[in-house]
Amino acid sequence: MTEGADGVAGTGKGAGADEVAEQVRRLDERVEDLGRVIARQSQSLERLLDAEKKRSARDAAGADLALLVDLLALFGDASGCASSSADAADRAAFTALADGLERLIVGHGGTPVTPRVGDDFDATTMDAVDTRETGAADRSRTVAGVLRPGLNVGSRSVRPAAVIVYR
Description:
- By secondary structure, this protein is an alpha+beta fold.
- The protein folds into two domains: 1-61; 65-166, Head domain of nucleotide exchange factor GrpE (Nucleotide Exchange Factor Grpe, Chain A, domain 2, Roll).
- The protein has helices spanning 17-61, 65-84, 88-107, and strands at residues 110-113, 126-132, 143-148, 150-153, 156-159, 161-166.
- Strands 1-4-5 form a three-stranded antiparallel sheet. It has a three-stranded mixed sheet with strand order 2-6-3, with no helix packed on it.
- Helix 2 runs antiparallel to helix 3.
- The longest helix has 45 residues, at 17-61.
- The relative contact order is 0.11.
């Protein structure tokens, strides 16, 4: 093989077309191998991006739903104990516990739905589990009692508040 003026190996007088064809075939294999490596890397990057998007969407909601549902159950129990306690010291302790649980829920991206008696019934955040007759027309379709608080995460109602509604 001889080297030309540009520094590239040439075929020279003794080199045949078979040698050139073999070099082209090897080059073709290397290009194909490189193409496969790039395709695998691209697929890996796409998988990583998809996983990151899912994680970001979950983080954007700011919520671990299982934890929030458990915290909501404790919040409901503490609120119920506070409202039914006859002892002022117990009522204050349960209220403080409920307030702390509410802060945890809000800190993890949730919002407790705690309607009050007289609030308008909202089917998107409340579930009417029972009704109560009312003589006053202006009290119709308002909350008569709260059985269990609800939970919103972002704009989504994860667990509606269980309420009794006047009809």
